[in-house]
Design a protein that fits this description.
Blueprint: E1 6-10, H1 15-26, E2 30-35, E3 44-47, H2 53-62, E4 69-72, H3 82-100, E5 108-113, H4 125-132, H5 137-147, H6 151-172, E6 177-184, H7 192-199, H8 201-210, H9 218-229, E7 240-243, H10 247-258
C-alpha cells in the first residue's frame, strides 16, 4: 500500500491553490496549507504571510513532520504594489523553498506556479539574473523596486525570475528533491479581474482566442501540478511546463510570421 504524502500548499484558500488542495486530499495525502486566510476545506492550516520572512520561518518551524511535496501557488497580480509583487511572487517563495527543502524527504518534489507572463525571460535575462543574485529577501525587494516602477513589469519579472531560479535550484538540490514550474495562461480564479486590470483586455483577449475562446480552469492547472509532484514525473526536473492550450506559442509564431 502506498503511504500518504505530506503536501505543503501555499495559497491554498482559493483559486488554483484550493484546486491543488482538493486534488491531493482526494489522493489521500495529508495537506498543510500556508496562507493568510484559512481554507474552507478541513486541512491543517498555518497562518503565513509570504511577504514576511519571520512569518515564513515561524511557519516552517511549526511543521511537525518532513514534507514530501511543496506546492508554491500563492501569488499576487500586477495590480498590487511593486514591493508586494516581488516579495510574494518570488523572494518570499524563494525563502520558503530554501528553508523547507532541506527538511523534505528525499525523492520529494517542489512545484511552483509561475505564469505565461514569464514567457520572455530570455529577453530580460540580465535583469532577471540581477534579481536572482540578490542574497536575501530585503535586498531583493529593494533592488527590484528600484528597477521596476510598474506593477505589470514587476509581475512579469517576478515570474521570469521564478522560472530561471527554479532551473538553477533544481541542479543545486538534485538527488534530494525535484523542482519544476507550471506556467498557466489566464485562469478563472477570484484573482482574474485584477489581471485584466493590470494587463488589459488588449493583451489577454487575443491569447484567450488562441486558447479556444475560454480561460483555463483551476482544476486543469492542479492536474499538472499533481503530475509534476508524482512518481510518474521523476525524469522531469528544472523545467517550466506551460499550460495555456498552446496560446502563447501560437501568438509567438504569429508575431514571428508577421515580422
Amino acid at each position: 500500500m502506498t503511504r500518504s504524502r505530506t503536501v505543503v500548499v501555499t495559497g491554498g484558500a482559493s483559486g488554483i491553490g484550493e484546486a491543488v488542495v482538493r486534488r491531493f486530499t482526494a489522493l489521500g495525502d495529508e495537506v498543510i496549507v500556508l496562507d493568510r486566510r484559512k481554507p474552507g476545506s478541513p486541512v491543517h492550516f498555518v497562518e503565513t504571510d509570504l511577504n514576511d520572512c519571520s512569518s515564513i520561518d515561524t511557519a516552517v518551524d511549526a511543521l511537525d513532520r518532513p514534507a514530501d511535496v511543496l506546492c508554491n501557488v500563492a501569488g499576487v497580480s500586477g495590480a498590487s504594489p511593486v514591493p508586494l509583487i516581488l516579495g510574494v511572487n518570488f523572494f518570499g517563495l524563494r525563502h520558503l523553498t530554501d528553508r523547507l527543502v532541506p527538511r523534505m524527504n528525499e525523492g520529494g518534489a517542489v512545484v511552483s506556479v509561475a505564469s505565461t507572463a514569464g514567457w520572455y525571460w530570455r529577453d530580460h535575462l540580465a535583469e532577471v539574473t540581477r534579481l536572482i543574485e540578490m542574497p536575501d529577501f530585503r535586498s531583493g525587494v529593494d533592488t527590484g523596486a528600484a528597477l521596476l516602477r510598474d506593477g505589470k513589469d514587476a509581475y512579469a519579472r517576478s515570474k521570469e525570475a521564478l522560472i530561471v531560479w527554479t532551473s538553477l535550484a533544481a541542479q543545486r538540490y538534485r538527488g534530494h528533491v525535484r523542482l519544476n514550474t507550471v506556467s498557466p495562461g489566464a485562469v478563472e480564479t477570484p484573482l482574474l479581474p485584477s489581471f485584466y486590470a493590470s494587463m488589459g483586455h488588449a493583451e489577454l483577449d487575443p491569447l484567450t482566442e488562441l486558447a479556444g475562446g475560454r480561460n483555463g480552469r483551476p482544476e486543469e492547472i492542479a492536474a499538472v501540478v499533481e503530475f509534476l509532484a508524482s512518481a510518474q514525473a521523476t525524469w522531469v526536473n528544472g523545467t517550466d511546463v506551460v499550460a495555456d492550450a498552446g496560446a502563447e506559442m501560437a501568438f509567438a509564431l504569429r508575431q514571428n510570421s508577421a515580422a
